[in-house]
Specification:
415 residues, alpha/beta, TIM Barrel, two-stranded antiparallel sheet, 17 helices, globular, binds zinc ion
Length: 415
């Protein structure tokens, strides 16, 4: 099973927007750009929303049928580990092996020595075609990289073999993710991580490093855009070179996690993938749930009431909701509107504060981030929330499609 050149990870927390999401891919197709939709949901999302991987598969299959989509599509077991992979095996054909927890756990010194012996041929000035700068690689540096990353790659190997045993090799797509860690991986580190991945026999088709800068949930990139652009292009050059050097799958490409809403780096990404004729996987998740709230607010009446209720409850449960996401959100509590203020808002007020339109003076990234992590509140509304989604399906769908197509696909893949 080969992942196509361009793919887009969509998350659908409440399982009602797959058709609207697929419409965005159909819009791209009309522009001559083929993008494979990948429906992803992590174990954490499943447990908060009380869904199972088979629900995602069912929803994807139904949307594809209803919309007459003839292209490929995938279901991603997002950020799985050995502890929780079993529940995903049957329903998924894309597996994101999360090794972040093992980064920095020192591997056996014997393994480190084997790695250094094998790769010290790259020591000295490492020249990677496409990168003007030379990388200064010493054996000490190799040891440091091996100590930091080998355990993670070994763990990915274990998960990969576990899945392969159940599904059969070649019957699924493998991604290795290292994004949920505190330090970014440099292009030269990535080169040796890919060497280790090849040694483990993991046929990775996508790799999700942690890039430089902050990738907060649902808001724009924070960091040095020029530095990001430089490292992103270097990563592409590293991948090309590593594919040849280590015999990794030819379609190996970068995966950008927390990829929604990073408007300030989309131009650089678009330029880089065109320059290198590279593929890309852009993974998003919660951005669709926020469009549901925008759609409900714009619907007015009981739709708007529900949107307000979600915010007011989330406001009162700030610590509980934000705690698990502390490292990937930056909320200034003083800039959150009070429940009394939001109570008085019109649907348009609510939508403007929430919609990610940076040129709108009413856009409030603090409000947006709190709602991003506040989906648990909507879960607790149970049928009431789902009924509203169904009642206002049209306006919600319009916002979901528009967000994915105009604000994401167009900027990243079309340019
Ligand atoms: Zn991730």
């Amino acid at each position: 099973m080969i992942l196509e050149k361009y793919s887009f990870g969509v998350g659908d927390r409440f399982g009602h927007q797959a058709k609207a999401q697929l419409q965005a891919m159909l819009n791209a197709k009309k522009q001559g750009i083929a993008i494979t939709p990948v429906w992803n949901k992590s174990n954490r999302e499943h447990s908060i929303i009380h869904t199972v991987p088979a629900d995602v598969r069912r929803e994807a299959d139904a949307a594809v049928k209803a919309m007459g989509w003839s292209g490929a599509y995938r279901v991603d077991a997002d950020h799985i580990s050995l502890k929780n992979v079993d529940a995903f095996i049957e329903a998924s054909d894309f597996f994101t092996l999360d090794v972040a927890d093992f980064i920095g756990k020192a591997a056996d010194e014997k393994e480190v020595a084997v790695f250094v012996r094998k790769y010290k041929k790259y020591a000295g000035s490492l020249v990677i075609p496409g990168i003007s700068e030379k990388f200064d690689i010493t054996t000490t540096r190799l040891e440091t990289i091996a100590r930091k990353y080998l355990m993670g790659v070994f763990e990915a190997g274990k998960i990969y073999r576990h899945i392969a045993k159940a599904k059969g090799e070649g019957n699924f797509i493998t991604e290795v993710s290292m994004d949920e860690t505190d330090q970014p991986q440099t292009p030269s580190e990535m080169f040796f991580i890919l060497a280790a991945i090849a040694d483990e026999g993991i046929p990775a088709q996508t790799i999700a490093p942690k890039f430089t800068g902050r990738f907060n949930k649902g808001v724009d990139y924070v960091g040095d855009v020029a530095q990001f652009a430089k490292e992103f292009e270097e990563d592409l050059a590293v991948i090309d070179f590593a594919v040849k050097e280590f015999g990794l799958p030819k379609n190996l490409k970068l995966s950008v996690h927390s990829g929604s809403d990073k408007f300030s780096i989309y131009k650089a990404i678009n330029k880089a993938i065109k320059k290198f004729d590279a593929g890309l996987h852009l993974k998003t998740a919660g951005t669709t749930w926020l469009e549901e709230l925008i759609g409900l607010a714009m619907a007015g009446g009981d739709g708007l009431d529900i949107a307000k209720q979600v915010y007011i409850k989330a406001f009162g449960r700030f610590d509980e909701l934000c705690g698990p996401y502390a490292t990937v959100i930056d909320i200034d509590r003083n800039k959150l509107p009070s429940p009394q203020t939001v109570e008085k808002w019109t649907g348009e007020d609510f939508a403007q504060a929430l919609r990610h339109n940076q040129s709108c003076k009413n856009y409030n990234p603090n409000f947006r981030q709190l709602l991003h992590v506040g989906y648990k509140v909507a879960v607790e509304l149970g049928r009431g929330y789902i009924d509203a989604l169904e009642k206002y399906e049209d306006i919600v769908a319009k916002n979901v499609t528009e967000n994915i197509y105009a604000r994401h696909i167009k900027q990243v893949f079309i340019g």
